[in-house]
Structure formats: C-alpha cells, structure tokens
Amino acid sequence: MGLEQNILNEPVSKLKLRKAITVDGRTSILHATELMRQEGLGCVIVVDTKGRPVGKFTERVLIDLLAKDKAALNQSVGEYMATVWDQVRTTDPIIRVVDALRDHDLRFVVVVDDHDVAVGLTGQRGLAEYVADHFPHAVMTSRATEGQAMPQREGA
Amino acid sequence: MTDRKRQSTSTDEFEDPLSNFEPRQFDDALEQALCEESVTAVNSTPIASIHADATVQEAIERLSELDVACLLVMEGDALVGIFTARDVLNRVALDCETECQKRIAELMTPSPSVVHETDSVADALSAIAVGGRRHVPILDVDDKVVGIVSPQRVNAFLQDHFQQIGKP
C-alpha cells in the first residue's frame, strides 16, 4: 500500500505516540513546567478523576505568561488551561489526525482508548516522522549545516 | 576501410548514458507530490526573526507578540541560530530571573538544520524527522533565508491532497 492509502486506512496506533503527561487542574504551573521538561513534551493534559481529558496547558501559554505575567507561574494549570483541543482514538485512521491538526490549528492531539482515557499524544512531529519513513532516500540526503540535531526531540 | 572499421567499432562500443535510467516509480499520487513539489509549497512567510544581540526576554516577548513557536536568530542577513518555544521550556522557564537577561545568542541552537528552496517537501519532512525540530529554515542558493518550513502548511498540504482526491 502506498502512503496515500496508509494514511487513509492505517490506525493512529501506527504513529509514534508520546506518553501523555496528565495532571489534575490544581497542579501548579511551575510543577507542570518541570514535568514537561523532564518528559520533553510541550504540554500537559489536564484530566478529571477518571483520567478523561478536560483541557491542556501548553508551552505556548507558558511563553505568554513569561512575557506578561511571571507571577502567574505559581497559580494552577486549571486557571490557564485551554479547553479547546481534539482527541482521536487509537483505532481511528491517521487521516483523522491530519484533519484535527488543521481544522483546529493544533500542534498535537490527544489519543484516547475506547474508554476515552488518554493514552498518548501525537501531532505534527509524529505525522512528519510517519510520512518521512516512506522516503528513506530523503533521510540519507537531507542537508544540514555544521550544527547539531537536538539532543532531545521536540513536539508530539 | 580502416575508417569504416573504426567507425563500426565506435558504434558497437557506444553506450547510451541514459540506457539504464529508470525514472522513480511512486506508489501513489501523494508520494509523487511530496517528492516533486518543492519546499516553497510548505513555506511560511513572513519570517519571524530576532537579532543575536537581543535578550532572551525580548525573544520571549516577540514569540508571544507574534504568536509563533520559533524565531530565526540573525546577524544581518546571516542565519546564526534558532530559538523556539521548546528552548524557553528547557532553558529559561524555571530560572527566568537569570536566563531572561542573557543574550539570545547564548541560549539559541546555533547552525540549525536547513533545507534549500530547491529541495522537495519530502526532504523537508525528513529534516523535521531527523533533525528533531518542527521548524526548519529554508535557504536560497546563496544561503539567504527565504522562509521556514511550517508544520501547519505541511498539514494543509496533506489535507488539500486528500480533499482533491475526494477521500471518504
């Protein structure tokens, strides 16, 4: 099957999922930031008592706070979480991820199981890696300057 | 006779240099589009940039003001580094009092992976996958920055393709 059919038919579980950091809404932004740094992720998912996503706190919001209101870092993620996000199931076709990222202008989507419990994250980077796997020759010829690749991957 | 013999020998030895050329075969139209479209199809302009002498705090404010996740760090026309939201998370956020006063040149990633405007979209995706960054600067033949690969534009490229083929 070619890339086109793979994207239309293969399940989201075929993408490289990142482990989702889940926190409750009372977690401080500072603590959430530390978790994000440790796991190399740009967001935490805020969940309810049953592990179901209710919002997200991202490095984009962190930047806004550092730019305008550093004192807010001591407040809880629940105060600043975004309630707009999208989620896909592990069994959904990959095209759902493509649609979700574009339709909602997202960097990543939450991946849930059949009980709507968050099991991971995927997004722009995961999609790029999936597509790039279909072009091994391009990996061999990709040009880089004398600089280095990141020691830690970025994005979900 | 000698000339005819020589000519005959030359004809026998002549080998068409394209005789073993095999055009690349693609499994589908999407693969072909990704290999044949240049990165300009997923280019994002205008470019968000900052001078290398700016402070980290100024860079953070610019990221916030422009609502972008990446700044190209420039010295004149020369690209010298890249500074992203992830750098803020990893290197600044937990000690902003100290780090925010430093020059951006001290915290940026110098000499980032790049692609050129003649490279394909597939090359750009590989640079993202291999280089570890979602944002990859695009240079022209003179190594001047002309744009940056935009993950949003890549997604749009994919989605537009599927809309054209009338996906279910």
Tell me about this structure.
The complex is a heterodimer of chains A (156) and B (168). By secondary structure, chain A is of the alpha/beta class. Helix content of chain A is 36%, strand content 17%. In chain A, helix 2 (29-39) links the parallel strand 1 (22-23) and strand 2 (43-47). The longest helix of chain A has 11 residues, at 29-39. The radius of gyration of chain A is 17 Å and the shape is globular. Chain B has a 4-stranded mixed beta sheet with strand order 1-8-7-6. Chain B has a 4-stranded mixed beta sheet with strand order 2-3-4-5. The N and C termini of chain B lie far apart (71 Å). Helices cover 43% and strands 18% of the residues of chain B. Chains A and B meet through helix 1, helix 2, helix 3, helix 5 and helix 6 of A and helix 2, helix 3, helix 4, strand 5 and strand 6 of B.
Query: Helix amount of chain B, in percent?
Result: 40-55%
Structural class by secondary-structure content of chain A? alpha/beta
SSE run of chain A: HEHEEHHEHEEHH
Average pLDDT rating of chain A: 85
Structural class of chain B: alpha/beta
SSE order of chain B: HHEEHEEHHHEEHEEH
Question: Helix count of chain B?
Answer: 8
Rg of chain B over CA atoms, rounded to whole Å, is 24 Å
Oligomer type? heterodimer
* Overall number of strands of chain B: 8
- The portion of residues forming beta strands of chain A comes to 15-25%
Distance between the termini of chain B: 71 Å
Helix and strand topology:
The complex is a heterodimer of chains A (156) and B (168).
Chain A lengths: L2 H7 L12 E2 L5 H11 L3 E5 L5 E6 H10 L8 H4 L6 E3 L5 H9 L4 E5 L5 E6 H9 L3 H6 L15
Parallel strand pairs in A: 1-2, 4-5
Antiparallel strand pairs in A: 2-3, 5-6
Chain B lengths: L1 H12 L15 H8 L6 E2 L4 E3 L4 H11 L3 E6 L2 E7 H8 L3 H4 L4 H4 L1 E2 L4 E2 L4 H11 L4 E4 L5 E5 L1 H14 L4
Characterize this entry briefly:
The complex is a heterodimer of chains A (156) and B (168). Chain A is of the alpha/beta class and 156 residues long.
